[in-house]
Design a protein that fits this description.
The chain has 487 residues and is of the alpha/beta class. The protein contains 15 helices and 13 strands. The structure holds glutamine (GLN). The site of glutamine has 14 residues, from β6.
Length: 487
């Protein structure tokens, strides 16, 4: 049951949760407890919506003086000498980074189980994963340890864990938030994103972080002509028309022929609870006065394959810097430079990372580029065109986030291949460079379910407006044991 408690109990609250979920790799307990004590007390929080708020930072985003391990043994003991621009801007807005959150190694995964530093459990059911790769950030927010946390989203790593943990997850437009200080996995796909306890909070965080940064030449301000925030008028700017990618349309895209809500091999594309929640979300959007229009997204069939081809190709180049010389732990002794690099990489990288570097290198090999990388780029262009069409005259596209709710471990976990295939709904927005917002629609069988809205470039406000309206009209619950410290 949610309840508001005496603010002095925060340290005990934090410790009890962390013993069960393990969301932080490093945390300044005193700083966050102090923030909990002073939050909401008279005079303590003047100066904007973020003043005095503590936040968690995924361990692939730099915070000066804190670890920066990316969940990898390779960077064990590395402390960042500087802060990411996104972090610096939040600090300038009065917020304080209080710790680093667990993640899949270098952002590669959907469970946070590929971290070299142990697991993060889902606050709704600790036998299940928090999702990934920003699982630590999602779990920390879901448990109420911080009101928001930063994550990174290359193919869904903010939205999928947000959906697994019942919090809001915003993946901004490519370039809307500076990537300076984000350790690169797949540069053309990824952005720093926000996990927050409400859409309003996500908006405040995004507003503080966004905009051109001289340290990242791919970052930019919102171009003129894109409707901005509703600026407290109560007016929502958009057309109030939302396109819907129904599970049936998704199955048709995958099968390449008229379908019945099932994927090509006869198994349903969505877990029944997720399908039911999606239908409910549609009803509720209608009740809020949105006009819903069903649409098709034929290129969805190639999304996951194109995403993994491009992401792994970029990863194989980006991770070349971890050679034990420029970055990474150096082996104790090596007879020559090659052996040094080999030793460092063999000892530093986990299995999933090694697999992905090998696959990425393979896809880029001379003579193979036509077959893999260039085809993936063409599929990427197709996805971009499909979304351009889908968004013409509409505020957003409503889609599932992930085919399942939070999954268990061992025999209960989908295979690594199935986990990759399941990224089809999230990776589209990364391939197309568009903003996407996951928000909770309800709780089914004790586990949260989310949906996502994908919008036009720099159209975050339309997505946030809809999610805010939805959250006000249909508030979802919090996990058992959650206490309200940050309202
Ligand atoms: N599951 C995807 C992957 O493993 C998403 C990763 C991400 O967004 N960082 O690549």
């Amino acid at each position: 049951m949610t309840r508001t408690v005496c603010k002095d109990g925060f340290s005990a609250y934090l410790r009890a949760w962390e013993a069960r979920i393990g969301s932080f790799l490093e945390i300044d307990e005193e700083a966050v407890s102090k923030a909990a004590r002073s939050h909401g007390s008279a005079g303590a929080s003047g100066g904007g919506p973020l003043a005095g708020l503590p936040f968690g930072v995924k361990d692939n985003v730099a915070v000066a003086g804190m670890r920066l391990s990316c969940g990898s043994r390779m960077l064990d003991g590395f402390v960042s000498p500087y802060s990411a621009t996104a972090v610096a801007r939040l600090v300038a807005a009065g917020a304080a980074p209080v710790g680093k959150t667990n993640m899949d190694e270098f952002g590669m995964g959907s469970s946070t189980d590929t971290s070299a530093y142990g697991r993060t459990n889902n606050p709704w059911d600790v036998s299940r994963v928090a999702g990934g790769s920003s699982g630590g950030s999602a779990a920390a927010v879901a448990a109420g340890l911080v009101p928001f946390a930063l994550g990174s989203d290359t193919g869904g790593s903010v939205r999928q864990p947000a959906s697994f943990c019942g919090v809001v997850g915003l993946k901004p437009t490519n370039g809307a938030v500076s990537r300076f200080g984000l350790v690169a996995y797949a540069s053309s796909l990824e952005t720093i994103g926000v996990l927050a306890d409400s859409a309003a909070r996500a908006r405040a965080v995004f507003e503080a972080m966004r905009g051109a940064d001289p340290l990242d030449q791919t970052s930019r301000d919102r171009p003129d002509g894109v409707p901005g925030a509703r600026a407290g008028t109560g007016e929502r700017a958009g057309a109030r028309i939302i396109g819907v990618l129904s599970p049936e349309a998704a199955a048709r895209a995958l099968a390449g022929s008229p379908g019945d809500g099932a994927s090509g091999d006869g198994t349903p594309l969505l877990e029944p609870e997720v399908a039911a929640a999606f239908e409910e979300a549609k009803e509720r959007m209608r009740s809020l006065g949105y006009r819903l229009e069903e649409l098709e997204l034929p290129s969805l069939a190639y999304a996951s394959a194109a995403y993994y081809t491009i992401a792994l190709a970029e990863a194989s180049a980006n991770l070349a810097r971890f050679d034990g010389v420029r970055y990474g732990r150096r082996p104790a002794g090596a007879p020559n430079p090659e052996a040094l690099v080999e030793g460092a990489r063999a000892a530093g990288f986990g299995d999933e990372v090694r697999l992905r570097i090998l696959l990425g290198t393979f896809a880029l090999r001379a003579g193979f580029q036509d077959r893999y990388y260039l085809r993936a780029q063409r599929a990427r262009a197709g996805i971009r065109r499909d979304f351009e069409r889908a968004l013409a005259g509409r505020d957003a596209v409503l889609m599932p986030v992930y085919p399942t709710r939070a999954f268990g471990r061992g025999a209960e976990a989908p295979s690594p291949f199935a986990q990759k295939a399941a990224d089809l709904f999230t990776c589209c927005a990364n391939l197309a460079g568009l903003p996407a917002l996951a928000f909770p629609t309800g709780v089914s069988g004790g586990l949260p379910v989310g949906v996502q809205l994908v919008g036009a470039a720099f159209g975050e406000d339309a997505l946030l407006d809809a999610a805010e309206e939805y959250g006000e009209a249909y508030p979802t619950g919090r996990p058992d044991g959650y206490e309200e410290y940050w309202t």
